[in-house]
Amino acid sequence: MKKVLFLMVAAVAMMFTACSKGGSAKDTVDAAMKALVAQDYKAYAGYAYVDESLNKEAVDNAITLAANAAEKLYKENPVTKYEILGEEAQGEDKAVVEVKITQKDGKETTQKMNMVKNKAGEWKIGENKDNNATTEPAAEETTEEKTDSAAAEAPAEKAE
Asked: What ranges in the chain are assigned the alpha helix state H?
């Protein structure tokens, strides 16, 4: 289930887009994350990458879909803060922005967002091909799972 949620987060993150010209890739991610913290999922989805060749109805449907996915994912455990860890330019029209996201329950996730410029020169959060995100509490959960399985094995060892 956690993998499904992570994939949903990654999919929504891949669809962000910037609405302002002239800013940096980092500025675009900052604006998208501010909307997410404010729980303004419609504004958050307004940063969604949408194929420039689509008609207006298809664009509106894609943004609505992204807003619904973000709301479903974050409604019960909203993002409370974020920190942009860095930006790495990869030519004039590509960059990678790394962001640390903290949710209400304390879960912290680090994501690398692949940024691209569209034909109008606006930065958009593009497809994340490598899915390099790490979730710090997941490591703790793995540790807890090992502890639970060790505890489950311990009575068997004592019984021998």
From this structure: 2-14, 25-37, 41-45, 56-74, 136-159
